[in-house]
Amino acid sequence: MADSDSLPPTSFLRTAARVVLGAFLLLAGTAHLTVARAEFAAQVPAWLPVNTDVVVVASGVVELCLGAALVVLPRWRVLTGWIVAAFFIAIFPGNIAQYVDGVDAFGLNSDRARLIRLFFQPVLVLWALWSTGAWRDRRSRR
Prior knowledge:
Blueprint: H1 12-33, H2 37-41, H3 52-72, H4 77-90, H5 92-101, H6 111-118, H7 120-131
């Protein structure tokens, strides 16, 4: 992994986008653990062989950690960007299951709304990679 001191600086726009994504993850993680537990539980695929509440709590804790890392660890932004992108890919089956199973959650109460939601997951992956400079700086060396 690249030494953070040798990474090219990021623009104000990338930095702002990284911090906004971090704030989004902090809010989502907090919601996982508090007011939206049932909504997040509805997105856990029935075929997943893990207790639904464990998945919701664990993913909430991961989101809190990733959100905090995006905001307060800019020196580790490239590694964090790759991890956040991988996290968004890892949770995508839950979004697919919500669509396939027709589960209402977060106001997604139609097949059309759930289908449209699926197209936002790649946007989140790209946002993580772009805002952290992860893709751009992937070849930076110590």
